[in-house]
Amino acid sequence: MKPDKLADGVFRVSAKIGTRDLFEGIWPLPNGVMLNSYIVRGQKKTVLVDLVKDWDGAVLAVEEQLSELDLKNTGIDYLVINHMEPDHTGAMASFVEKNPKVEILCSEKAVPLIKWFYGIEKNVRAVKDGETLDLGGKTLEFIMTPNIHWPETMMTYDIEDRILFSCDAFGSFGRYEHCFDDELSEEEKELLSGETERYFANIVSTFSSFVIRGIAKVEGHPLSIVAPSHGVVWRKEPHKIVDWYHRLATYMQGPREKEITLVWSSMYGNTAALVPSLVAGIESEQIPVHVFEVPQTHESFVLEKAWRSEGLIIGMPTYEYKMFPPMYHILDILERSHVNDRKAIRFGSYGWSGGAQKQFSEFVDLMKLDLQGCVEYQGAPTEEDKKKAYELAKSMAKAIREA
């Protein structure tokens, strides 16, 4: 890979991560992910914005691109750390060892994290909100955007070139052959669409209120380019990704899309037997439905669609007097991510004793769900159960459609 030029003296140095590992140790990467760092070279000083970790050859890939710019191990005066998560800082100790005079600039809350994570205290300086750094012909402004998605997070803005280095904000999963949004093939655009929403739901959704505040904070900064630490660089439509994130963040409070996510698990097929009736009821009202079976489907993909949907239908059998464990895990993830205030239906079978509904009711309270009804039955569902499920799903879909 070669460095990608964003403007005179501004470059992306990046790495493409494969599909083997999990992002943050939990989220699958069927299409990989990009790790992006950035060089800003002024007439007097040069800055590296964010690092990578030693992951799938990322450090070597970035070092080779720095060599292309005659910057490997020399010539970098400042290291700006927007966010302390290890995918952006993992190479810090080795980088500082090779660049002992580099000054690390970060938010005040990041200073102790640098010590705790990497044992580095020398040449570390906290910058303030709105503080600027003169590089000679280029000026960087530091913008504090806490909790997008750690408390120490900030963004860095190149005033002359109007480039926002936004770190995890405005990012996406996926590897892309091209750097910029206007270079993508149709296939890459389709990939970007889904992987942006999945990234937001998995990584940022819990912090949606802070996303909205952060967007408000950068509104006064003209944008020619949005350069996140994951995904593509937005130069043709920089405001598209900002507006997209704003819309996704508003799903926390609503309104959301007029869609329903149906997620179910079944031990011997008795809970599964009700799924066709529920889907038919939803489709009778021309409402899109996303259907997932767990644990066959990873929670990452369930969360992506549940985040955008006004309705949830949850199906699971009773297992040892409680909910079937894979579904408990799904609901725990949804609750942690603040998938709240949705219309909901629950269905499922039981053998010798029930119990799943009692435990499900705890999530109804935690997630403030508007429970429309429940279809629970012993053994296999009867035709009456199937009819009830159809009518419940149809009624909920109609209410969502007409809202």
Description:
It is a single chain. The chain folds into 2 domains: 247 residues, Ribonuclease Z/Hydroxyacylglutathione hydrolase-like (Metallo-beta-lactamase, Chain A, 4-Layer Sandwich), CATH 3.60.15; 142 residues, 3-Layer(aba) Sandwich (Rossmann fold), CATH 3.40.50. It contains 12 helices and 21 strands. The strands form 5 sheets. It has a 7-stranded mixed sheet with strand order 1-2-5-6-7-8-9, covered by helices on one side. Strand 20, helix 11 and strand 21 form a beta-alpha-beta unit.
Helices and strands in order:
Layout: E1 4-7, E2 10-17, E3 22-23, E4 27-28, E5 33-41, E6 46-49, H1 58-68, E7 78-80, H2 86-89, H3 92-98, E8 103-106, H4 110-118, E9 124-126, E10 132-134, E11 139-144, E12 154-158, E13 163-167, H5 186-204, H6 208-218, E14 225-228, H7 238-250, E15 257-264, H8 275-283, E16 289-293, H9 299-308, E17 309-315, E18 318-319, E19 322-323, H10 325-336, E20 343-350, H11 356-366, E21 370-378, H12 383-402
Parallel strand pairs: 6-7, 7-8, 8-9, 13-14, 15-16, 15-17, 17-20, 20-21
Antiparallel strand pairs: 1-2, 2-5, 3-4, 5-6, 10-11, 11-12, 12-13, 18-19
How many H/I helical runs? 12
Tally of domains? 2
Q: Detail the poorly predicted runs.
A: none
Evaluate the radius of gyration.
24 Å
- Spatial strand order of the main sheet: 1-2-5-6-7-8-9
Q: Name the average pLDDT.
A: 97
Which percent bin holds the helix content?
25-40%
Under CATH, the topology of the largest domain can be stated as Metallo-beta-lactamase, Chain A
